[in-house]
Amino acid sequence: MSKLLFKLRGVPDDEAEDVRELLADNEIDFYETSAGNWGFSMPGIWLRDADQFEKAKDLLDEYQKARGIRAREEYARLKREGKNRTFIDWARENPVQLILFSAIIAAVLYLQAMLVINIGE
């Protein structure tokens, strides 16, 4: 019976490709499901043989630990070089979006506050 190994929703393409390669290199039989036309289904990598799950999970855990270490090292390097992106960088690059998002947040907070005040009357 099939078993879900790895959910693909929100996963970068390079990570998904690495997982596919890892499974193929270790001769673990798998297939993928997509999110479907409307994006409601669960995109994921499934194992055809549930007996291979423990081996695949161990390989995946090792891969994710190594990927996490690489990501932290890359972030530290960018931070040392002063090249890491911050919120301030994003705000400078997208001032219109910042103003729009801020206005939407303020409107939602205002409406919620008014609802509570009006219910109390």
Keywords:
mainly alpha; 3 strands; Alpha-Beta Plaits; 11% strand; flat
What do these coordinates show?
With about 120 residues, the chain is mostly helical. The chain is built from four helices and three strands. The protein folds into two domains: about 1-85, Alpha-Beta Plaits (2-Layer Sandwich); about 85-120. The longest helix is centred in the middle third of the chain and has 29 residues, at about 55-80. It is flat and about 65 Å long. It starts with a strand and ends with a helix.
The helix/strand series, from N terminus to C terminus, equals EHEEHHH
| Class based on secondary structure composition and strand pairing | mainly alpha
Overall, the morphology is flat
Query: What is the name of the CATH class of the largest domain?
Result: Alpha Beta
- Biggest sheet statistics: 3 strands, antiparallel
Question: Ranges with pLDDT <50 over ≥5 residues?
Answer: none
What proportion of the residues form beta strands (DSSP E)?
5-15%
List the helices and strands and how they pair.
Elements: E1 3-7, H1 13-25, E2 30-33, E3 44-47, H2 53-81, H3 87-93, H4 95-120
Antiparallel strand pairs: 1-3, 2-3
Produce a short descriptive summary.
This protein is mainly α. The chain contains four helices and three strands.
